[in-house]
Structures are given as structure tokens and as C-alpha cells.
Amino acid sequence: MQNQCIRINQIKLPVQHDQKALEDKIRKLLNLRKDAVIKYQIVKKSIDARNKPDIRFVYSVDIESEGLSISKKVFGQTVSLIQKQNYHYEITGKTKLAHAPVIVGMGPAGLFCGYYLARNGYHPIIIERGEDVDRRQETVNLFWETGKLNMESNVQFGEGGAGTFSDGKLNTQVKDKTGRNHEVLETFIKFGAKEEIRYINKPHIGTDMLKQIVKRMREEICRLGGTICFHTKMTDFCMEETGGNKRITGVWVNRTEKLETGFVKNRTEKIETNILVLAIGHSARDTFEVLRQREVVMSPKAFAVGLRMEHPQTMINRAMYGTDIHEVLEAADYKVTYQTSKRGIYSFCMCPGGYVVNASSEEGKLAVNGMSYSDRTGRNSNSAIVAAISPDDYGKGVLDGIKFQQKLEKLAFLEGNGTIPVQRFDDFCQNRRTEKFGKIYPAIKGKYCMGNLRNVLPKELSQELIEGIHGFARQIPDFDRGDALLSGVESRTSSPVRLERDEQFFSRGISGLYPCGEGAGYAGGITSAAMDGLRIFEAIIREYAPLERI
Asked: Which residues is 358 bridged to in the sheet?
């Protein structure tokens, strides 16, 4: 659905300005009286730091034109009439459901798909192998403190998905004309996110706020008639074949519960359903194996691997702003890219004022990720510095990408003796174990030790990362300083497989089976995964009627 409004782009104001200054600038650009009443909405706010230290905020705003007399002369390069696209869906499905839809996984894809199904009377059942977010936090804290890993509930698995322990970034490069992106942001705001995520250039929530938001969404799903099953893992699914066509009839799960005696009880049961949404996340390696055995159509895909790199946040602030952080500016971020003769090297999931975290999910293997709180006040910045990897690097088998990841994670575990191996950049270049830190000390959640990450990565990949980091120093001064810290291995950047979908969004050849989100290969972050959850919700309501209408 569309509505018309006036958009003004490139409104530049000093960092120190108030709301009146913005409104005065809008009136001036529209050639309106100084006392004219205007209704506007900020749609984008970014920072222009090209002329350091003269930093400017740059706005784009939408103005309701109703009641305003606007001369045609004001329209031009920065002022235009636009049609705004609002998110809209329509339930047209006629197929009756005998059972509730089942969603596997409670990351952003599963959460948004489930929430919108619940809002519209489909009473979804969401099964999640991990714990609710409060117990999950306790379990993760215990792992960081002691190294005791729960393979079913950790940084990768549990309510909110892997993004729960991250910076909570909400920016996406997905070009979407349906309004899904805006709808995702509005939903986050509804459940407690700051309203500024609507318009800031690189919106983020922070791990602390994200935990509260997903909890409120879960409570609303339950209030609307949905069911959430924690400690419940999909082990298989059921199909029937008629006339050469397969369709979903149910899903087998293993439920785990802790008894008062302290013992753990496991029971296997079947949940009958004709709709199974696979929002399993990119780390559900055992589930990918089940899908391979059941001949679900999958293909290997490109992803990236590398290391986390830490710098002082003050250094990044000075590089980006020309001075240390201003009181009205957030901790600065960056994005850098470099092309070697063979592959791209780039920063990924940059966490201003954040922490490197132990993000392992398998015994004997170690992976890291980055995390920031909403205030981003940590002393270090960190970012994944990764190299693009394709099936040409790791093999053409469907699950060869997972095997490649596991090999690196095993080497990282061995190098750190079960803790995160950390190394100075100059030692990495010289292929020697770090013996002492320089001016930079690690900001890490989880135990760590000094090591040599050259023992973890393939030789060629290490050399390409070194080349890329030196190249980044031409964009950010001193990026390649010798005491900058590397830790590893960063292996869970995205899914190494894609679950193929047909035009109805079914898994190819299996009616009712909907691959969804990042684990299925259709997203690359919180927002794009949530948008894919909406996409699958829309596919379901086109095909099936709500349960309450039967």
C-alpha cells in the first residue's frame, strides 16, 4: 500500500543542533513561513565526517503535504514527491489445516514468522532446542566463566538465535520494495527498541536490549495463542508421498526436562503438522545432516572465515571523526574492504565498544563472535576480518563447507587448549606465538590465552589476511599496528549451505516444508532473517487458511 509525501534529502546540520534548527531548515527548503506548522518524520540520519573535524549530521525527512501550499519551484535534486510503501499482506489461502504450523528455531526468522502467524490466527508451535533467554544467559555466563559447554543452549542456540549475543545490528543491504524492512524495525520498536532505529544509518539494539525484546515477543506470541517449546530439538520429520508428490505430515522431536531429583529426562514424540518452517540457524550442523539423509535439496554456498581484530575504541573514533568521541556521537564504527589477487578480504560484524565472545557450540571446537551492549562503552572495538571462501576452496560436497569450518574450529580449540587463542598482529605476521601484550589488552567474554593463530588458518589464507590488514591501514591509519589483537577462529559468518526453495517457497519437491532465514541460506543478519520470516509467513497465508477460520 502506498501513500504520497514530500521527501527532502541532504539536510546538513552541525553536530550541536536542536529540533528547532532542523524544522527551520525544512521550512526554508520548502519556502514556507517561519511559523508554518509541518508534520515530518525523519527517515534517515547519518554522519558526514569527510571534512574533519567539521562533522555534520545529514538528514532525510518525509513531510505530509496535506494542508501545505508548496511551490513547484522548490522541487529539484533534494526535494521530491515520493510514494511510500507500507507493509501489507492479505490472507487468501483456502487449504484447511488440521494441525498448527510448526516452526523450528527461535532466531529472528522463526520469531517473526511465528509472531505474524500468531497475530493472524494460525496458532503456531515454535520449537527451540535451547533455553529461554534468561536461563540461556545464565548458561552462557557459566560457559564463559568455567568452559563448561551446553551444546543445546549457548551463544548459537536458544531464544533469539545467535544474534542475541551480538551487537544487535539492524542494517541490511537487502533491496526490499514491499516495506518488510520498515515493518521489522517497527516491530522491534513496538517491543521496546529505541525509535531512532527507524532512521539512523546503521541501527543497532545491543545484546542487553535485544534480550528484553525477544522475551516480550515470545510473551505476545503465547498471548495470541501460539505455543513455545524450549529444550525441544527436531530429530526428523515425516512425509507422505502421493502420485510422486511429497508433503509434510509431522515432525519428530526430542524433549528434555530436568526433574526435581536432578536427573534429566528425554522423551521422543511426534508433532503432527502439514507446515514445517525450518528456521534452524547457520550452526545447526546435526540438523543439516538429517536433511541430507532425507534428501532435502541443498547446495553448497560461499561464506567467509577469518579472525576477530581488536583496536582501542579511541583510535577508531579519532580515525573516523578526526578527534576523540564527541559527547553527542556514538562510538565510531568502520567498514573496510580489500581485494587480493584471489579473493576479497573485508570487515564483518564490527562491534564498537564491544567484546569478543566465545561462541562455540560443539565439544572440542572453538569459534568466536563479537558482541556490544546498547551503550557501546567498552574500551575496545572489534571486528571480524574475514576472507571470502567458495566451494572451490573447500570442496563441492553439500556439507563440505561445514567440515571446513569444523576443521578450523578444532585447530583453534587445540591452539588455545579449550580457550580463545589471542595473538598480536606483529606476531601473526612473523608466525610466532605471542608472549606478552602491548598497549592493547583483550576485551573478551570467556577464557583466553596467548597463542599462534597461524597454526589455525591455512598458510595462504593467513598471508591474504595480512595483506588485507596492511591494505586497511591506507583507509584507517594505524589499523595494522603491531599490538592490535587477533583472536579466532571466526567461522560462523553465514550458512555454508542453501536449502533450495521453489516458487511457492517450499523445499523443492516437498509441500509444506519451508526453509527460512540465515540457516537456509536466505539471510545474512538479524534484519534480513526477520524479513525472510515475514516472506515465509506471507507464503503460508497465500496457501493455507487460519486455524480459527476452519
From this structure: 368
Taking the mean position of all CA atoms in its chain, how far away is CA 489?
Answer: 18
Q: Cell match 525509535: residue?
A: 195
Q: pLDDT-derived band of residue 486, with 50, 70 and 90 as boundaries?
A: very high
Contact 280, 394 (CB under 8 A): no
Q: How far is CA 399 from the centre of its chain?
A: 22
Share of the chain above pLDDT 90, in %: 83
Residue 439 clears pLDDT 50, i.e. is over it: yes
- Give 184's Cβ-side CA count (13 Å radius): 30
Instruction: Summarize pLDDT for 357-386 with one digit per residue, the tens.
Output: 999 999 999 999 999 999 999 999 999 999
**326 three-class SS:** coil
Partners of 85 in the β-ladder: 2
- C-alpha angle 137/140/145, rounded to 5°? 125
Cell numbers that stand for 33 in this block = 513561513
Q: Are 522 and 108 in contact (CB under 8 A)?
A: no
Of the ranges 83-87, 103-107, 205-209, 526-530, which one carries the lowest mean pLDDT score?
83-87
Take residue 88 and report the three cell numbers written for it: 501489507
d(CA 476, CA 313): 13
Q: Give the integer Cα–Cα distance in Å for 252 and 235.
A: 6
* Cβ-contact 338, 316 below 8 angstroms: no
pLDDT-based confidence at residue 550 (cuts at 50, 70, 90): very low
Q: Using CA of residue 512, residue 518, residue 519, residue 522, what is the dihedral sign?
A: positive
Lateral strand order in the sheet of 368-371: 368-371, 355-358, 444-445
* CA pair distance 136, 205, nearest whole angstrom: 19
User: Shortest CA distance to 103 belongs to which of 121, 115, 93?
Assistant: 115
267 neighbors 255 (Cβ within 8 angstroms):
yes
Which of 14-28, 316-330, 505-519 is predicted with the least confidence, judged by mean pLDDT?
Answer: 316-330
